[in-house]
Description:
- The chain is mainly α.
- The protein has one domain: Hypothetical protein af1432 (Orthogonal Bundle).
- The chain is built from nine helices and no strands.
- Helix 7 (115-132) packs parallel to helix 9 (150-160).
Amino acid sequence: MSISEIMEKMIREANGNLHDISHFISVWTYAKTIGELEHLDQETQFILEVAAITHDIACPVLREKYGNTNHKLQETEGAPLVRDFLKGTGLSEAQSERVAYLVGHHHTLDAIDGPDYQILIEADYIVNASEKGYSRENVQNFISRCMKTEAGKRITRTVFGV
């Protein structure tokens, strides 16, 4: 399946939740842009984009089950959900497992093990900071403490004027 087909499948999965759709499209856009500016190889870029599209796959289930979208629950419940979601998409088992790993860790900052993971963290942060109105100080701290890619830093500084 192409990125566009995975995107369409995820839009259907969101079942009309415009916030969720807008969020994952925004995260995907930043992730795609940062990945391309960082010159990721084609395979890593593909994994990154699939993970960006599906990173919050657990949110609808969490809202129903718990009434919230707690970050640790997103990780715990997201990994198995994304494995199931990716069946029949043509992704290899290794690709599906890497996406599941990224979805299952996208709020864990102390286990980053590759550029796909780093960029997913950065892209999700940019969108969350924008949606939730994070303070200038919060954004500056995240840039200095957590961001590793030059493209992610540049984009974040530009978006937030810091």
